[in-house]
Each structure stands twice: as C-alpha cells, then as structure tokens.
Amino acid sequence: MLLENHYHNSLVNGIPTGLRLLDTQMSGIVVLSQVQTEWPVLVHRDPIETSGSRCPLDACSSSAQKMVFNLNTLLACSFFCLFPSTNRNIGNLRAINFDMLFVSLHQKPDEKQRNKIKCIVHYFERIFSEMPTGNVSFERKVTALEYKSSRLSYPNARFWRKSTVPLCRFEVRTSGFIEDQPYEAIEVDFANKLLGGGALKRGCVQEEIRFMINPELISGILFLPAMKENEAIEMVGAERFANYTGYSSSFVFSGNHVDQRDIDSMGRRKTRIIAIDALRLPGKRQYELELILREINKAFCGFLDQRKDDEYQKLFLDEGISGSVTSEVVIHRITLQNSTNTCMMPVEDAIMSSTVAKSSDHEWTSSLMKFKSESQENQNEIGIATGNWGCGAFGGDPEIKTMIQWLAASQALRPFVLCYTFGLESLDNLDEVVNVIASRKYTVGDLWNMFVKYTSKRVKRKTVDGFFQWLLST
C-alpha cells in the first residue's frame, strides 16, 4: 500500500515521520512538506482506518506510481470534501471536510464564515503563485500516567509542593496578539480536545482564527484524535498567509501576510504552536485540587521539551529514580540566599547569581545549568507566549489560569512567559501581582503552596476574593 511505503520510508534520525494516525496515548511525530508538484488522483473507497499505524486517508488511486503526502494536497481534498467521513467519530476524530463550513453559509448568511473561507481561498492563491518549500511537523506529546523508566510520569501534588525551581521571567502585554510575539517562543493554542475546535464549522475564536491564518494546521485534524488529560499537540513550521481584524462575530480577513520567520534545520519555520485543551465550563470545581492538577499537568506536558525526558528525570527525581502518579516524589533543592529577583530573569541567570550553601545543592545546580545549556543549544531560549487560556467561552478563572501557566512554564525550565491579557479587566493588576511575587522570591513550590491555600479557601467558601486580591492582602 502506498501509505505504508510512505510511512516506512519517511525517517528522520531513524524516527518514523510519515503520515499515519497518531492515536491517543501514542507519542510520535508526522512531518509533511508544504507543497508537491505531482497531484494524486483520489477516489472514494472504504471508511477510514481508526487503529494501528495507518493514516485515515483511504482514498488513494492504485494507479499513482509516486506518492508524497503534502499539506496542499490534504487541504485541497478537505476543501473539495473528498475524504470519507464514515466512522470518524468512533475514532475520536473531528470531521476534516469543509462541507459544514459551506452549509453554515447556506443556512444562515454569516460574515465571519465568509471571511474564514476567504482566508482559505487566499491560501490556495498564494501557493499557486509562489510555491513554498518548507516542512511542517505535528507531534503528539504524552506524559505517562504510570511510571515508565523512559518517560516522565504524570506529576502529583507532592511534586509541585516540593519544587524549588525559581520562577521564570514573566512579562505582561496589555496589547498585541500571541501570533505577533517578537521572540522565538512557543505560542499557545487555546485548543479544544479535538484539534481545530470549530474551525470547519461556526467557531471563530482564538484556535479557529489561528487555523484560518495558518491553514496548514488544518491538516492535523485528519490524523490526530482527541487529546486526553496527559497529552498535548505541538505543531512547528506552519506558515502564516493572512492578516485579520476583529474576533468572533467581528472577524474579517484583511489581506495577505508575508511570513518572515526564520527556518530551522528541518526546513520548518520557527513558528511553534502548542495545542493544550483546558477544562470546559468547570464552574466552582476548578478550585478543587484534582482539577488544578489536571490543568497544570496539561500545561506542563505542552511546555516541557520532551526530547530531554531522561535528563529531566535525573535532575528532578530523587537519586534519578522516577515516581508514579501515586508515589512520593522528592525534588532536590536549590538554595537561593541572595536578594536577586529570580522571578524576572531566566532560570540559569538566577542560579548563576545565587550563593549555594550545600555541596549537594551545588552539584545539582551545576547539573541543571548543564542541562539548560544543552537543552537550549538548538532552541535559542525558547519561552512561552500565551494569554487567557481556558477563559472566555471555556469559563476558566483568568487569575487562576495565568498562575497555572507560569508555574508549568517555570517547572518545564522555560526562560520566560510572555502573557497577552487582551485587555481583560480582571488582569489589570497582573503586573503588580508579578512584582509582589518577585519581591518575595517565590519558587515554584512556594507559589504552588500559596495557590493551593487560596483555592482550598474558595472550595470551603472562606473567601470570595479573587486570587490576586487575596495574595496582595496576605
């Protein structure tokens, strides 16, 4: 079969990268090129495969002698509704054809839907006038729910409580957009557990807009089933083709965008997008420890450089022995005794400027510095660019979600968080809160413990204050 040949012949450093189904709990990566010059002939056949390593694309003519599966091909098939749609819901896969987007225009004229289609049409116009030549990767990242020696296990409350990792630099942006951030940062997709959300239906908020201005992301819907609580999806290299104004019902395509991002060694644009799905309408339960752990571990899974799992475990788990979800995990300590503002500088700078009292702490600190250096050798200080993840339509508390992301990014050893508040009133004093936390020299464990103390009071109805107000008055 052509798909199987494509899969087995597509290797990078011995790792399979060919198009196939990346099923739930199956970590792996698919790398696709942006265009191809030889287009396949497609015919409808049997319903899609939803198990094993096969890709859910069973529409390839046996007459095709050469086949390379590319983003423009997959998007063209989606646009013309050529993919079989039977049983996709059984495999936890979202519909990939554009039929529902077209139907929504027929049922009820809607300007935002028209403008979404304009973005897609503009994409095809661009690639036929000037063929792009890069690659885009889609990776399912998984944190093991049970202990496995080769993978970091799902952190428990003790893991977070005991952490003495310094908080990373935190910058607040009251204007601008994540996709326009000026640094080389991982940009958070406020995702639905089914990748793409309502991009191919009526949806038009953060995730859906990103999939319209970077249409190559839509291809991931084809072969990436729903995310579980210990999973995230990282997409690297998707080119931006469109500009826009507005949001939701006011969304408008506003013309061509020339993507100036640099290219990495794999031929991918240095646009890194991480899809992490927050709890949907959690209400007052979002203050319960179980759900807080779910959210922080979801963000941690997305933010961690999982190619460094082994080294990370050796650093953070006592004696290099990994712990499971239920085991007692002991984190080695860093002793920071000077007055340096560790919250407002990269982790390695905070460590370099600290006085280490114990030889064991000094040994661990040296290991951390070495790990950070090696980890970022090819990543150039890659931080996190995010905003009101899990808020808005998902009903999350913005103050809680902001702190969760800061904790997760710091524990993942990211050098900074760039937070866009989009003018949200409840985050007006975020800068003040960050400065107060910095002045108190909190570590991840310190902030976590304050955080849990607050949320337990909310659960017990001993306070109605927001976290920021409560923290500032403590």
From TrEMBL:
Keyword list, A-Z: Glycosidase, Hydrolase
Active-site feature positions: 189, 207, 208
Any one GO MF annotation of this record: poly(ADP-ribose) glycohydrolase activity
One of the Pfam families matching this protein, by short name: PARG_cat_N
Alphabetical list of InterPro entries matching this protein: PARG_cat_C, PARG_helical, Poly_GlycHdrlase
GO cellular component, one term: nucleus
Limits of the PARG helical domain: 72-140
Domain of life of the native organism: Eukaryota
Enzyme class: hydrolase
One Gene Ontology biological process: carbohydrate metabolic process
Domain PARG catalytic Macro: 159-428
Residues that bind substrate: 192, 206, 247
EC number: 3.2.1.143
Sequence similarity: Belongs to the poly(ADP-ribose) glycohydrolase family.
Protein name: poly(ADP-ribose) glycohydrolase
